[in-house]
Write a structure and sequence with these properties.
8 strands; Serine Threonine Protein Phosphatase 5, Tetratricopeptide repeat; 489 residues; 20 helices; mainly alpha; TPR-like_helical_dom_sf
Length: 489
């Protein structure tokens, strides 16, 4: 099973997750092994339990192309007509469940089921319940493990809040109550509080490079805090200034730590293979440990020969008009030069090469890490927050750090509004990394027809058209769950 492989991959331990047949209102099956008194006897047990927490969320995100499906493809600029799920999502036609489900091997329809995310949350809750009672750990070790597990739980809540909006907030082990959905702003505030209380128990960076990016660190906590604040700021506009300030502080904390750097853009395959000085948080994928992805990495649909043995055409491509908007032909930008083949061709001879660590050219297997946060993204998020605050003198150097690495022209006031320039830079730098739709939503740009192909009207946005549908089976064991009404037809 994938969880076993991920446990071995992350910590070099061999554990097997067993789930009980017990059913709770939310239909979360607690982990028998983690709740057993025969477990939790050694530090190795603790390491294995923490790995299981990572592994459960990794399992969910690698069932299908979910990270890019909702994070990138939904904005409408990626064209992949041969598989119904992609154009259906690109048109925000999510109530057309029969098309979202095709082809079946991509399992696009299963993203409506939030149960597997709550398996990860349940494992975190059990681990937190047991850690305080372990006498073989000293206080420093307990604090570090608790901080790591709380990061995983906070990340999971952050991730699902951006997908579904309001979600039930479960924080106690074996909580069988039928909770209603909690406002996602309150959920993210809870996450921020947990991260602020525990972040100092984590190292900024691990001495062992094999842990870089794939285990929670002070840097990943600060970055998640910044992202939570920026998401909240998009919806609680009366308090935006406070949230932008706190997001900027968290991002600058990462920069000022001195532990991270931008690698040469020509080393992009190394960056996306992961575990570099640019890594903040990512899920590890490694063929040597039996972990490869298929129907997950965007590279599977954007490459052809000679990257993979797939003839002269890939399955999908970015609209040439969008690529030109990001990287004008007359403007220098190494990202365009190394991430794309035939960038301005509006058909499947184009290749998007950001994810091209191929392990099997015939079966289209990849082992690029699933990048969640990296240093360039933190710098740009900080620049965005500072620009929103009118602190342009602090924002521009962060923006130019990313531009300089890309061989692009430094920012000039003649470009116009700095906030817009930073947002555009985020789209250039993070293209294909599962953030575009969320950036459009949190900034309100998703309601601007000039900003994206799959735009929403203000009425649609306010009705929740930016969320993903929730499978009605969520109500089977919890009658207090109200589905996302925009998608209830």
């Amino acid at each position: 099973m994938k969880l076993l492989k991920y446990t071995i991959l992350l910590f070099g331990t061999c554990s097997l997750l067993l789930v009980s047949s017990c059913k709770k209102f939310l239909d979360v099956e607690p982990v028998d092994r983690l709740g057993s008194n025969s477990f939790w006897k050694t530090k190795q047990d603790v390491e294995s339990a923490v790995a299981d927490c990572y592994g459960l969320i990794y399992d969910r995100l690698t069932v299908g192309p979910y990270h890019n499906l909702n994070g990138d493809i939904r904005a409408g600029e990626f064209i992949c007509p041969g598989f119904p799920v992609f154009p259906t999502v690109a048109k925000n036609d999510l109530s057309n469940s029969s098309q979202v489900a095709l082809p079946a091997r991509y399992k696009g329809d299963l993203l409506a089921d939030w149960y597997p995310f709550y398996q990860a949350i349940a494992a975190c809750n059990i681990a937190l319940d047991r850690l305080d009672d372990l006498t073989f750990l000293d206080d420093t070790e307990k604090a570090r493990y608790k901080a790591e597990v709380k990061f995983i739980r906070a990340f999971t809540y952050f991730y699902i809040s951006r997908i579904y909006g309001d979600v039930p907030l479960y924080t106690k082990a074996y909580d069988g109550s039928a909770k209603s959905r909690t406002n996602f702003i309150d959920v993210l505030r809870f996450c921020i509080q947990e991260l602020e209380e525990t972040k100092e128990a984590l190292p900024w960076q691990y001495t062992d490079p094999t842990n870089w990016g794939v285990r929670a660190s002070r840097a990943s906590s600060e970055t998640l805090i910044a992202n939570c604040y920026m998401w909240i700021a998009g919806f609680d506009k009366a308090n935006q200034q406070v949230y932008w300030q706190k997001a900027a502080d968290a991002a600058l904390n990462v920069k000022n730590s001195g532990f991270f750097q931008l690698l040469p853009i020509e080393d992009f395959k190394k960056i996306f293979k992961g575990k570099t000085r640019e890594s903040i948080f990512e899920f590890s994928v490694n063929k040597n440990y039996g972990s490869e992805t298929k129907y997950v990495s965007l590279g599977q649909w954007t490459t052809h020969s000679p990257i993979v043995n797939y003839g002269a055409n890939s399955d999908g491509y970015y609209l040439a008009s969008y690529v030109q908007k990001l990287y004008p032909p007359t403007a220098p930008d190494k990202r365009r030069d190394v991430w794309f083949y035939l960038p301005y061709i509006n058909n499947t001879t184009q290749m998007f090469l950001k994810y091209s660590n191929v392990t099997d050219v015939n079966n289209y297997l990849f082992d690029d890490n699933m990048i969640i946060f990296r240093y360039s993204g933190v710098l740009l998020l900080g620049a965005e927050a500072l620009a929103n605050l009118g602190r342009n003198g602090e924002a521009v150097p962060l923006l130019n750090m990313v531009r300089n690495r890309a061989g692009a022209t430094e920012y000039s006031p003649s470009e116009g509004n700095l906030v817009d320039a930073v947002f555009m830079e985020e789209q250039k730098e993070l293209i294909g990394e599962g953030v575009r739709w969320y950036d459009l939503v949190r900034t309100g740009r998703v309601m601007d027809i000039s900003q994206c192909v799959d735009f929403l009207t203000p009425e649609q946005f306010n009705q929740g058209a930016w969320t993903w549908p929730i499978n009605p089976k969520a109500r089977v064991n919890n009658p207090n769950i109200v589905l996302n009404q925009y998608w209830v037809k």
